Amino acid sequence: MAKKVKGGLTTPKGFYANSLNCGIKKNKNDLALLFSKAPAKAFAVFTKNKVKATPVIVSQRHVKNSLCRAIIVNSGNANCCNGKNGMRDAVAMVKATANGLDIQRKEVLVASTGIIGKAFPIKLVKRAIPSLIKGFSEKKGPSFAKAIMKTDRFSKEIAVKIKLGACVVTIGGAAKGAGMINPNMATMLSFITTDAKIDKSALKDAFNKAVDKSFNAISVDGTMSTNDSVFILANGQAENKTISKGTAAYNKFYKALEYVMVELAKMVVLNGEGVTKFVHVIVKNAKIDKDAKKIASSVANDLLFKTSLYGEDPNWGRIAAAVGYSGAELMLDKLDIYLGDKKVLSNGVRVNTDRKSLRNIYKKKNIEITVDVKLGKRRADFFTSDISKKYIDINASYSS
Amino acid sequence: MAKKVKGGLTTPKGFYANSLNCGIKKNKNDLALLFSKAPAKAFAVFTKNKVKATPVIVSQRHVKNSLCRAIIVNSGNANCCNGKNGMRDAVAMVKATANGLDIQRKEVLVASTGIIGKAFPIKLVKRAIPSLIKGFSEKKGPSFAKAIMKTDRFSKEIAVKIKLGACVVTIGGAAKGAGMINPNMATMLSFITTDAKIDKSALKDAFNKAVDKSFNAISVDGTMSTNDSVFILANGQAENKTISKGTAAYNKFYKALEYVMVELAKMVVLNGEGVTKFVHVIVKNAKIDKDAKKIASSVANDLLFKTSLYGEDPNWGRIAAAVGYSGAELMLDKLDIYLGDKKVLSNGVRVNTDRKSLRNIYKKKNIEITVDVKLGKRRADFFTSDISKKYIDINASYSS
Questions:
Q1: Hey, are the CB atoms on A323 and B51 less than 8 Å from each other?
Q2: Taking CB atoms and an 8 Å cutoff, what residues of chain A touch B52?
Q3: What is the pLDDT of residue A278?
Q4: Average pLDDT in the B88-101 region?
Q5: Counting Cβ atoms within 10 Å, is residue B167 exposed (0-12), middle (13-18) or buried (19+)?
Q6: What is the ipTM of this complex?
Q7: CA A43, A45, A51 angle in degrees (round to 5)?
């Protein structure tokens, strides 16, 4: 079993971090650096949005090398829709980082988050990079995690340790919110570090699977940012026997990685401005994985469902409607729906329930919704929240 | 040219209507009837939701006969997820109407709107049908339109007249809102009547095309109800020369029908509770129709865009992001975006604009957003609104 420990990105061996205020924002750290002393196997998953921010394009190229050592991140400006100037600036940001660290440019990944379509303040960033590098340390994981926060109510970090033979392998991570969750940045960024020694293909496999179970299984507001990115760096410093696919060590590593990423994803949901409820949507017995996910995502994103959560009004018809328009294969006369452990729909027909007990379920902070499709054996889990008036307040005047 | 006249559903010749309170709701009319003295060619478009309310299933069957004479509608109960009892009740509602009017059951269409998963009050409905029929008249179109309202701020009716040769043909319509637009009913219903004599295939063609341009081109909140339905009845009482496809008369009729339906759809958007802005999203020069519609719908439904409208914050990056995740074919380096007549994005690169003038555009009640894809020649128009705190208020406690 993985053991949760205090810490985050720099808890695994050989990782350094730092952050500072370079002047994009007032009084808040807006530039952060993550560095691995050894070349690290790197993978990333990026936004599927066709309007991609420039740093996403640059990182997509660099991560193909698969060995990276640094990630430089700014907040306050997305560097998106800035054309050639944007590309020049993203490259300059990488170059300044590589020069300062004395590593190759292609070993540097870059991420930005903030407003779209604003000239990128490259001068501020370049000027700050030397001090950023000068101050980095193995203790500054929390500083990195704080720099990527904005209106977040708490810093989102986690670390776990597992034993592989005689070696201890550590996985750490940090994340920032997205959309309604953290509307002032609108983008979801996440960084995972590990000192595990692991096969390239095993790492890729584990990472992609865990992204699917975590950051691709949270509902924000149905929008998709131009800058969303999740990164993993594995630098091998734990000196364990190389993990390969299909082994017990791989399974142990995967479970720990999934745990780290799911916990971070849950924190992203829970942390959101205006969020009063945390909801776990479970879809059971769908015919295929895709259908299970479609239904879970449809319910988790349904605006009427989310507002009824906020109002603690157990109007489960909205869940049934969201299941129905999900596009998944469905037979109404097999469909069951549960609020908590109370069945409200059985084979497509309402169950006579005591309204007060349903309302009590919606009054809780943690709510579980189960949709049983009874057409197969596939399951999906999704995490979501309510939508509150505060969400509107915050998002109504972001760029102003 | 079509001439707009005062009136609605019963303005075309040979249509009768009535409504009353049967006791589902307190003090508000909740049961309505539309009747054509002659058998009318009928078509309908229903929700694509796989969780369909029972009246939808019954009407789907009956409309296949293509000749119908009556539509019976209740509000306050969706008759959805009620299983065999629900079917028994929808059929009983049709039967009571057919018996009262002395017509065949298959000539009766039925629609319900309201809460999902509540036992259907068939006794109240059956008891009221005789008085409903007794009181119907050619002057009670407005009464029908009012019965399908709930928190609507105004009744949504329209009528137009066109001249075809020596004959005057009239088209009338009424609608009720959907989702955020009219959250207390959550369902969009619309009824169109005409006294035109028209080929079955010509009517079908014109109706489907007009549905696509109108009720399928408004954004509500991205949800899809279990009861959404749009009906048309054409009873031929104008005695015009039968309209067939490919004729000048058809074109004239189609234009008038599209006008009626687009105006009703716009009213649905404008009328919504909490709506402060009316937005026309225009997508130009997409490669295929489907892409144009995907982009328009993605922008019109984007929650971050809709909240920025409410806050009068011209944060157009959210429009670019919504275009990007629409799934349509796209090249960022060809993409242009306009707020009103101000270009803000040109070939994927931000245009230096005066922020104040952009803000002034968002301060208006009517806003036009144009997305020029420059990959082909297809266009789509979509109508949407902002999302306000009032929306959350209303939807947070609907069923309570």
A1: yes
A2: 324, 332
A3: 92
A4: 98
A5: middle
A6: 0.86
A7: 135
